[in-house]
Amino acid sequence: DKESHINHCANFINAIRTGEKLAAEISIGHLSALYAHLGNISHWVDERIFYDENTRRITNSEKADSLITPAYRSPWVFPSV
Prior knowledge:
By secondary structure, the chain is mainly α. Helices cover about 50% and strands about 5% of the residues.
């Protein structure tokens, strides 16, 4: 719900400002977003996909793999890790 989302955002900002403990670990947020994105990508390409966590790539579809990282407008770039 909206109130829960607002509380979560406030917790995140307070953690940045004060060092307050996060209500949810970053890794949980990463996995939640990853699974949602992979589900969307699978739907968009209309096929089952296989994701390799080590390489962070979809291994069985170039089309699906190309959707993992969006195309950015110049001068914006995706930061390299």
